[in-house]
């Protein structure tokens, strides 16, 4: 006696692939973002392997799709994508006394990236040169920073914005108290 496949679950491989392609991600990119091997992602998309709940959870987080939405009978075409504060990826080990929240979607990495910076007094974010032609746009919301790009240096205060080359060594340093800022990285 064989079980009939659940029609809802039989749509899962195609919906995962559709979500990946819709975001312009390669199998390799999804593998890196999710921690699921490239071959496993491919097997799941071809319907050759059934993912565990943990694997499916990792894939939906990497693809920024709703877990339940993949199984909906009639997925909504237009929806607001909402990430609660605790769902936004945060980097705590880059720089010194600096926390970075990644606000842009993963598929924009390497093209257009948006970050929220929070720095303690004396905190720094030192960056190696990005790809040729890259530029950063820094807007200080609270506090004061010293910005260095190559041989140039400026001091920014709340409400100031600086646009500068990021294809040279550059750094942002908090001065005289904590800093809250937004950083946009644009690649050409």
Structure description:
There is one protein chain. The protein is α+β, with helices and mostly antiparallel strands. The chain has helices at 7-10, 12-22, 27-34, 38-45, 53-63; strands at residues 90-91, 96-102, 112-127, 135-149, 152-157, 161-165, 170-186. The model has no long low-confidence stretch (mean pLDDT 87).
Shape: elongated
The profile of the biggest β sheet is: 7 strands, antiparallel
Query: What are the low-pLDDT stretches, counting only 5+ consecutive residues below 50?
Result: none
Beta-strand share of residues: 35-45%
- The overall pLDDT average reads 87
Helix and strand sequence: HHHHHEEEEEEE
The number of distinct β-strands equals 7
Task: Give the oligomer, counting copies of the same chain as homo and different chains as hetero.
Answer: single chain
Count of DSSP H/I helices:
5
Backbone CA Rg: 21 Å
Approximately how much helix is present in the residues?
A: 10-25%
Distance between the termini: 59 Å
Structural class of the secondary elements?
Answer: alpha+beta
List the keywords:
alpha+beta; seven-stranded antiparallel sheet; 188 residues; 7 strands; 5 helices
Describe the protein's topology:
Layout: H1 7-10, H2 12-22, H3 27-34, H4 38-45, H5 53-63, E1 90-91, E2 96-102, E3 112-127, E4 135-149, E5 152-157, E6 161-165, E7 170-186
Antiparallel strand pairs: 1-2, 2-3, 3-7, 4-5, 4-6, 4-7
Question: Can I get a quick summary?
Answer:
The chain is an alpha+beta fold and about 190 residues long.
């Amino acid at each position: 006696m064989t079980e009939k496949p659940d029609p809802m679950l039989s749509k899962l491989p195609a919906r995962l692939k559709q979500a990946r392609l819709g975001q312009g991600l390669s199998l390799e990119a999804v593998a890196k973002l999710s921690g699921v091997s490239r071959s496993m992602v491919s097997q799941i998309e071809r319907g050759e392997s059934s993912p565990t709940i943990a694997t499916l959870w990792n894939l939906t987080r990497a693809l920024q799709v709703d877990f339940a939405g993949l199984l909906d009978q009639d997925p909504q075409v237009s929806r607001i994508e909402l990430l609660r504060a605790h769902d936004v990826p945060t980097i705590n080990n880059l720089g010194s006394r600096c926390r970075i929240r990644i606000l842009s979607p993963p598929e924009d990495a390497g093209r257009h990236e948006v970050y929220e910076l929070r720095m303690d007094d004396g905190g720094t974010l030192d960056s190696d040169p990005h790809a040729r032609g890259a530029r950063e746009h820094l807007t200080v919301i609270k506090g004061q920073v010293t910005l260095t790009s190559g041989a140039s240096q400026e001091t920014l205060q709340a409400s100031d914005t600086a646009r500068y080359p990021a294809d040279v060594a550059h750094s942002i340093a908090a001065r005289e108290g904590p800093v809250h800022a937004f950083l946009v990285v644009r690649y050409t």
